[in-house]
Amino acid sequence: MRPAAPLTTSSGTPSAAPPRPAGRPRLPRPQGKLSTAVLSALSAPSAPTPHSPLSTLRTPGNDALLTTTEAEAQHADPYGADLQLALYVLYELHYQGFDGVDDDREWDPALLAVRSALEKVFLRALRADVPSSVGAAEALDGLLVEPVADDGTSVSHHLRREGRLWQLREYAALRSPYHLKEADPHAWVIPRLRGRAKAGMVAVEFDEFGAGRAEDIHAQLFADLMADLGLETAYGHYLDLAPAEALATVNLMSLFGLHRSLRGALVGHFATVEVTSSPAARRLADAMRRTGAGPAAERFYDEHVEADAVHEQVVRREVVEGLLTDEPGLEPDVAFGIGATVHLEDRLAAHLLDAWRHDRTALRAPLAVTGRRWSEPPRCRTHENPDHRDSHLPGIQTPQISHP
Ligand SMILES: [Fe+2]
Ligand SMILES: [Fe+2]
Q1: What is the Cα–Cα distance from 120 to 15, expressed in whole angstroms?
Q2: pLDDT by residue (tens digit) across 346-380?
Q3: Which of 34, 91, 225, 383 could be bridged to 86 by S-S, CB 3.0 to 4.6 A?
Q4: ∠ at Cα 373 (367, 375), nearest 5°?
C-alpha cells in the first residue's frame, strides 16, 4: 500500500483531476415490463418523497408500479435484462442519480418496496445457484488456484492472447458502470464493521480513492483508460449497451453493500475482487500493451497489478480474519459472497467469450465507430502514426449485433 499523500501537488497547488464530463446520466431505455414500470415512475413529474404526508404515499402511479412489480417479479428471469436493469436504476439513486430525477426519490417508499421485491428474486436465485458447503477459508483458497493454462473460460487470458481492440473497447464499456464508481459500493460496509476489519477495509479503500490525489482515484484512472480507447467517459454513458450479465455483477455489490444483514457477503465480494485482481490485471495490462491501446489504458491495469497484490494480503489478514474473529457466525455469509461473485463473473465471462468467438458484439448493440483508428484494418506496427498502432492484429472486424 502506498503511503498517505499530501492533498497538494509538488507545486503546492491543490491536486486536480483532468476534467471529466459533468452532469448526471440520462435514464436508460427500458428492457421489459419491470424496467418500464420503474422508469415510468422515475419519469413522473412529481411523486411522493420521504417528506410527503403519509396520506399521499398511495398514488395511482405508485399503485400501478407496485401492482406491476408484484405480478411480474415472480415470473421474471432473475438474471435477465429487465429485472437487472430495473434493479440497477433503483440502486443508482443511491449513487449519482439521473438527470431530471429528484434526489429525494432515493428514499421514495414505493421505490424502496419495488427494490426489495426485485432483490428477493435476485437473492433467491443466487442462494439456489451458489454451493453453500464450503467455508470462507476454503472458498478464498479456491480463488488462488490459477488455471495452469488458458482453459478457454477466462476473459483476461483471451484478451491477453488474442483480444482485438474492438473487444477491449467493449470490455471497457461494459465494465464502466462499475469502474466509473469503483470502490463506492464497498464503502457502504465501513460503518457496519469494527476494529481490524474496519481499519483494513478503510486502508484498501483509501488507495482505491486515490490516496489523497483526485487524479489517482481508480474511477478516474478508468475514465482515462476509456479515453485512450476512444470511448465516452461520462458516468453512465454505456448503460443502454451493458448486457444483463454485466449489470448483475454491479447489482450484486449494491445488494450486499446496502444491506447490513449482508455485510459478511460484501466482505466476501471485496475479498474475491482483491484476491483475483492482480493476476488478471497483469494479463489485461499485457493486452493493452499488445494492442497499443495507450498509456492510460496500460496504467489502469499496471496500477492494479501492484496495488492489489498488497490489498490481497490486507483483505485476507485484516478484513476477513478480523471480521470472522469479531463475528464468527458470518463465515457462511463470507463464503456466500465469494461464491456469488464467482458465479456471476463466470456467467459474464461465458457471455463475452461466446459472443467474441463468433465475432459478435457482447454489448446490446455495437459501439459507435468514431474514428479511423477504431475502424481501419491493421497496418505496420512500426509506424509512428497512432492510426497504425493496431498493426499486429490480424484484423479489426466490426462486431455483429447479438441483441437486436
Ligand atoms: Fe481499484
Ligand atoms: Fe484493490
Answers
A1: 43
A2: 999 999 999 999 999 999 999 987 665 666 433 33
A3: 34
A4: 50
Task: Give residue-wise pLDDT tens across range 111-133.
Answer: 999 999 999 999 999 999 998 87
Ligand 1 centroid from CA 182, angstroms: 6
Q: Report which bound ligand comes closest to the CA of 274.
A: 2
Which strand (E) or helix (H) includes residue 48? none
Q: Which residues, in sequence order, are bridge partners of residue 14?
A: 8
CATH 1.20.910.10 boundaries in the chain: 132-388
Q: What angle do CA 43, 45, 49 make, to 5 degrees?
A: 95
Q: Which one, of 88, 83, 113, lies nearest residue 252 by Cα?
A: 88
Q: Residue 249, exposed/middle/buried by CB under 10 A (0-12, 13-18, 19+)?
A: buried
Is 1.20.910.10 the CATH number for 132-388?
yes
Expressed in angstroms and rounded, the spacing between residue 389 Cα and the centre of ligand 1 is: 27
Amino acid at 137: A
User: Which ligand minimizes its atom distance to the CA of 1?
Assistant: 2
The alpha carbon of 371 and the centre of ligand 2 are apart by a number of angstroms equal to 33
Q: What is the pLDDT of residue 343?
A: 97
Residue 94 predicted with pLDDT over 70:
yes
Q: For residues 266 and 188, what is the distance between their CA atoms, to the nearest angstrom?
A: 9
Spacing, Cα 311 to ligand 2 middle (Å): 5
Helix residue ranges, H only, 29-181: 33-43, 60-73, 81-92, 109-129, 136-143, 155-162, 165-179
- pLDDT tens-digit readout, 159-218: 999 999 999 999 999 999 999 999 999 999 999 999 999 999 999 999 999 999 999 999
User: Mind giving me the DSSP string for 326-387?
Assistant: H-GGGHHHHHHHHHHHHHHHHHHHHHHHHHHHTTB-SSSSPPP--SHHHHSPP--TT-SSGG
Ligand nearest to the CA of 300: 1
**Ligand 2 mean position, distance from CA 133 (Å):** 28
